[in-house]
């Protein structure tokens, strides 16, 4: 349970750091993710420029470095904190074991069944 809590705290901190950096750089950048009516109103108020629709390839190129860094960080956490040395072991430790452990303790605990 301690490992799970450590992972959760580290990942939440990394997530908040990423959001904070993005919002600090350009607060209105994420407006384009909202409903079209909201975006149009924001454009009418002059708070953002006309909507730019970058192509899919451009978006993918911008996201690859972050995806690689996140993969390395998460892999390092599973490798060093959980001690998993293979993909299957890492998957089972990170997901299956964390989800099934409380249920298994509840079912297998003899004091609950008696």
Describe the structure.
By secondary structure, the chain is mainly α. It has two domains: 1-53; 56-114, no CATH class. Helices cover 75% and strands 0% of the residues. It starts with a helix and ends with a helix.
Overall body shape: elongated
Number of E-state strands? 0
**How big is the Rg?**
21 Å
Level of helix content?
Answer: over 70%
- Category from helices, strands and their pairing: mainly alpha
Number of self-contained structural domains = 2
Mean pLDDT across all amino acids: 75
Head-to-tail CA distance between termini: 26 Å
**Sequence stretches where pLDDT stays below 50 over 5 or more residues:** 108-114
Q: What proportion of the residues form beta strands (DSSP E)?
A: under 5%
Q: Give me the strand/helix succession.
A: HHHHH
How many strands, what sense, and barrel or not for the largest sheet? none
* Count of helix runs: 5
